[in-house]
Amino acid sequence: MTNPNTFATREEIKKLFLLEAIEHGKAIANGDHKQANKLNKRLQSIYDKTRKQNWQNIFGELISHDDENVRLWAATFSLKSTPDLAEKTLQELSGLTSITGLTAQTTLRLWKEDKLDLL
Questions:
Q1: Where are the alpha helices (DSSP H) in 5-116?
Q2: What SUPFAM superfamilies has UniProt attached to this entry (predicted)?
Q3: Nearest 5°: phi and psi at 86?
Q4: Domain with 94 in it: what CATH number?
Q5: Residue 17 structural domain
Q6: N or C: which end of the chain has fewer CB within 10 A?
């Protein structure tokens, strides 16, 4: 996939984030942990790019997206900038019986315990 550092606009970053978050969810659902790990690194790189550009609010714009994986990643990446909205979204996702629900629970717990070091 494309390197987020080559993207110059907010819209390009948003599109790449959507694509990567959805693909990450598919990789997890299919049990393809190698691909999921690659996508996780790409998503982290996107987050790093938005921080450098001061564009973290991109994720808040996507926090109510239809896809649960997009909501999960958007909420996770919004924890520092809009913690109330991000925590509410993670709490809602925690009610899902999918791996996304478990991931949301774990993310929220780690955040509250100040152990989430990816942000």
A1: 10-29, 33-53, 57-61, 68-78, 83-94, 99-112
A2: ARM repeat
A3: -65, -45
A4: 1.25.40.70
A5: 4-112
A6: N
